Backbone:
């Protein structure tokens, strides 16, 4: 496949496909070249739009079909707000398509990092059991606390809002955690209880 053809290439191709005879001779029928040129422009436009459609099928290159991808993937994510920027919408489509969930600490740490907490870590509580517990290495709790875990954000967001780097309408001096809390609580295993420690 040679890529997208130009109108001149289509015109030359159409000219080569003309049947033989005086009725199709461009010198005897000069209007024929104008017809070929008009058809060639439209074929080149359709070729370019077909290439655009192939790019829109892959979320990595999506631009025009972002609203359609969002409809299919149940976006925008209510956890991230109702009116994200267009670039953020494209990223959300790509991430929703490639996301793989998990029920381990690493997965929830990655969620926290994606929300701007690079030093996040998880504290899990264990029930003291004979032969499995090690003093000084585990966080012990009661039988009920074995289903409780804490996501420690490790400090403030690295995405702090500042003059010249934020868009109109954003508040300064705020450390919003509502998106993080929504994402963590939505993805947390149903039998667990999670607390978020913002330090």
Residues:
């Amino acid at each position: 496949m040679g890529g997208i053809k130009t109108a001149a290439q289509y015109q030359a191709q159409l000219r080569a496909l003309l049947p033989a005879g005086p009725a199709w001779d461009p010198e005897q029928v000069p209007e024929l070249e104008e017809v070929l040129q008009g058809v060639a422009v439209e074929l080149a436009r359709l070729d370019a739009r077909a290439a655009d459609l192939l790019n829109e099928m892959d979320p990595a290159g999506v631009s025009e079909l972002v609203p359609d991808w969002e409809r299919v993937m149940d976006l925008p994510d209510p956890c991230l707000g109702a009116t994200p920027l267009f670039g953020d919408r494209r990223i959300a489509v790509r991430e929703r398509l490639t996301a793989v969930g998990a029920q381990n600490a690493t997965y929830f740490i990655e969620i926290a990092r994606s929300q701007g907490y690079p030093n996040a870590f998880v504290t899990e509580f264990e029930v003291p059991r004979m032969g499995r517990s090690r003093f000084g290495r585990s966080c012990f709790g009661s039988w009920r606390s074995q289903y409780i875990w804490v996501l420690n954000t490790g400090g403030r967001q690295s995405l702090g809002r500042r003059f010249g780097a934020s868009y109109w309408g954003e508040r300064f001096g705020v450390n919003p955690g509502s998106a993080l809390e929504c994402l963590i609580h939505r993805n947390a295993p149903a039998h667990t209880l999670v607390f978020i420690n913002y330090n």
Summary: Confidence is low (pLDDT under 50) at residues 161-165. The chain is about 40% helix and 10% strand.
